[in-house]
Design a protein that fits this description.
The complex is a heterodimer of chains A (312) and B (335).
Chain A lengths: L1 E3 L9 H11 L11 H17 L5 E2 L18 E10 L6 E12 L5 H11 L4 E7 L1 H7 L1 E2 L5 H16 L6 E5 L1 H5 L6 H14 L3 E5 L9 H4 L6 E5 L6 H8 L4 E6 L9 H11 L4 E5 L8 H17 L1
Parallel strand pairs in A: 1-11, 2-5, 4-6, 5-7, 7-8, 8-9, 9-10, 10-11
Antiparallel strand pairs in A: 3-4
Helix pairs in contact in A: 1-2, 4-5, 5-7
Chain B lengths: L17 H11 L5 H22 L3 E2 L11 H4 L2 E13 L2 E14 L5 H17 L6 E2 L1 E4 L1 H6 L2 E2 L5 H22 L3 E5 L9 H15 L5 E5 L19 E4 L8 H5 L7 E7 L9 H12 L7 E5 L9 H21 L1
Parallel strand pairs in B: 1-4, 3-6, 5-7, 7-8, 8-9, 9-10, 10-11
Antiparallel strand pairs in B: 2-3
Helix pairs in contact in B: 1-2, 2-4, 2-10, 6-7, 9-10
Classes of the chains: A alpha/beta (312), B alpha/beta (335).
Chain lengths: 312, 335
């Protein structure tokens, strides 16, 4: 069975963008307290991003409040301070780097709020919640507290687990771009152990995603991951699709469409790729979140996904 | 270009004047005439030049007051681009990411008029602050970064687009060279995002297209990333100087450079543009000495890590530059 899914992030509607600039300035403060006007704007924006993706089988909240991309999840953790701006992987986008200055914990899970809103606005479709994986969050942060990376990864994982336990979604996606972008084989056993705990804690089906990286550098480790689906970016590196086919992994969230370029893919080529994978358990998606595109072009990618899904 | 020891320079941008920022918004909304906007840009440029001359910098820039963005500015002036739409870049900051819809065409010089204005005013500024020998550089965003930071629909690959852009930007460099610009800098902040020999070879090819036959001294500026991935490939780049950040990464990149026979000149970032605290002259001297441990003083060009536009105001920018100017003045006497 082939399903179509929103990967995660989605461009913020114009009204929300303009409101946020006016209300928060260029950077919202970490200790900002949500106002009624904020909530009203969020509901309106969420309605729009839900509407844009109505043709997909599985949708997310669009991550429209994640100002620091994946690192946003760390902003509410104890023991973490948001530091200076740094590049988000190989993109021309930047995030405040979490600086770990004390014992990490998640006393107040925050990710549930937008998921609940999504469910309220979208009672029909299946929902997907996104959390950062502990390895990627470790790579995106600066650790000034723990003696060993494994300790830090474990602490981050425990905090993420606290979020995961509150997420009542059909699918829980654990984003681990760093696994393919900058794998550390010495750390992988510890990372994999933590990922197993997280998938076990999830209420819904689980997806562990990798993206932005060269799959051939980490395919052995990716094959060891245990989740209902493995997310693979078939765009960022030319050979990733072939590496995936050779690996024999069949339970895939297939990142077929390029969420970082406006060009629309050749439909026949995309269909060939779906068929060649010969999977009975497939989710079609973009290679990463659509927030990297302007909304008009993001909608075109969604239309393409919907079309591909309906014809399979 | 005449060689001296510890030639000081800048990367290019200065904090944008609040008047210019305000006027740029009005210009977008057609609430101000282009000529009035230009007047404000020119006045702000003069302030940038005075700051650099007064601070003791040897090779200065116009401060990029008229450039709203290092990508969009050029995309708006080259053929082949269509106007982009809003894409978030950080926090609540967005830019109109350009879309390449056709082959790139060079229409007319994009930076020459600004360079001519700045070069002319620099001479007045030298008189005002009793200095001689100051030179005016010009910078433009390189083809690798222009390609990487654009959407593209008309080119077969990022490589195809990069080399097409290089052909157009070579014409820009030639115009500057012909006019007598002594120092041409190609800004490539995206270079550190794609590791590997193939990427570095693409950058080398693109630079070779641009710098071929130029009389001017040439430089590449790279920032934001792991500079280790540039080497040893960057040593073969056809430019005279490689300009990098150092202060912001606690000078860790020096460990990489030490592994090679570094025969080019080094644009050496000695003050951090991400921190508003101004480094002391003593600290800057100490920083410069780190490069002198393995490079000749003629090879070392002390400068801020990156463009100063990230600093909160013009005063902080001036003080950071003055710390460099004063530190070099003392070191030249001590060496």
């Amino acid at each position: 069975m082939v399903l179509t899914a929103s990967f995660g992030s989605y461009p913020r509607p114009d009204a929300l963008r303009e409101y946020q600039i006016k209300a928060y300035g260029r950077q919202k403060k970490v200790d900002h307290i949500q106002t009624k006007e904020d909530e009203a704007m969020l509901v309106k924006a969420m309605q729009e991003v839900v509407g844009d993706r109505a043709g997909l089988d599985i949708i997310t909240d669009g991550m429209i409040t994640w100002d620091d991309y994946l690192a946003s999840a760390a902003a509410s953790f104890e023991g973490v301070k948001m530091g200076g701006l740094i590049r988000f992987y190989d993109n021309n986008t930047y995030y405040r780097r979490p600086t770990i200055v004390g014992d990490i914990s998640c006393k107040k899970p925050v990710l549930k709020n937008n998921l609940d809103l999504l469910k309220k606005l979208n009672p029909g479709a299946k929902t997907k919640a996104i959390v950062p994986g502990p390895y990627s969050l470790y790579c995106l942060s600066e650790d000034k507290h723990y003696d060993e990376p494994e300790e830090c990864i474990k602490a981050l994982s425990k905090a993420i687990e606290a979020e995961v336990k509150t997420l009542d979604a059909d699918y829980i996606q654990i984003d681990e771009p760093s696994l393919s972008y900058e794998i550390d084989r010495d750390l992988f056993p510890a990372v994999n152990a933590e990922l197993k705990k997280l998938t076990k804690a999830a209420k819904g089906k689980t997806i562990i995603t990798t993206y932005f990286g060269d799959l051939s550098t980490c395919i052995k480790e990716i094959m060891e991951l245990k989740a209902d689906y493995i997310g693979i970016d078939c765009v960022s590196f030319e050979g990733n699709y072939e590496t995936l086919v050779k690996s024999g992994i069949k339970n895939v969230q297939l990142g077929l469409l390029d969420a970082r370029n406006t060009k629309i893919e050749d439909e026949v080529r995309m269909k060939d790729r779906i068929e060649m994978l010969d999977s009975g358990k497939l989710i079609l998606s973009t290679n990463c979140g659509l927030e990297f595109l302007p909304r008009k072009y993001a909608m075109r990618k969604v239309d393409m996904l919907t079309k591909l899904g309906s014809e399979e | 270009m005449a060689k001296q020891i510890l030639t000081t320079t800048v990367v290019g941008s200065h904090p944008r004047s609040p008047d210019v920022v305000d006027a740029a918004h009005k210009l977008n909304d057609k609430k101000i005439a282009p000529a009035d906007y230009k007047k404000l840009v020119d006045e702000a440029t003069k302030v940038c030049i005075d700051d650099q001359v007064r601070a003791g910098i040897d090779i200065i820039a116009d401060g990029e007051q008229g450039r709203e963005d290092m990508q969009v500015f050029f995309a708006e002036r080259l053929g082949g681009f269509q106007e982009g739409e809003w894409v978030r870049i950080w926090g609540n900051n967005y830019f109109r990411k350009p879309i390449v819809a056709d082959r790139i065409k060079f229409k007319s010089s994009m930076t020459l008029e600004d360079w001519r204005f700045a070069d002319k005013y620099m001479k007045e500024s030298e008189k005002k602050f009793k200095r001689t020998g100051v030179q005016m550089k010009q910078m433009f965003t390189g083809p690798y970064t222009m390609a990487d930071w654009s959407f593209y629909e008309s080119h077969s690959s990022r490589r195809d687009l990069t080399l097409d852009l290089a052909e157009a930007l070579a014409k820009e460099a030639k115009e500057l060279d012909k006019a007598g610009c002594p120092f041409i800098q190609i800004d490539e902040p995206a270079l550190c995002t794609h590791p590997g020999e193939e990427e570095m070879e693409l950058q080398r090819e693109a630079l070779a297209t641009i710098t071929k036959g130029l009389k001017a001294y040439t430089a590449i500026h790279v920032c934001y990333g792991d500079f280790g991935m540039l080497f040893p490939y960057a040593l073969d780049f056809p430019v005279d100087l490689i300009d990098l950040e150092f202060a912001n990464n606690s000078f860790r990149t020096l460990d990489v450079l030490r592994q090679y026979d570094f025969t080019k000149d080094l644009g050496f970032g000695v003050v951090d543009v991400h921190k508003k605290e101004v480094e002391s002259v003593e600290q800057v001297k100490k920083n410069i000495r780190l490069a002198l441990n393995f490079l000749k003083p003629e090879q070392v060009y002390p400068k801020p890590d990156c463009g100063l536009k990230l600093l909160p105001d013009e005063k902080t920018a001036f003080l950071k530059l003055k710390a460099i100017g004063d530190a070099v003045k003392e070191l030249r006497e001590e060496l």
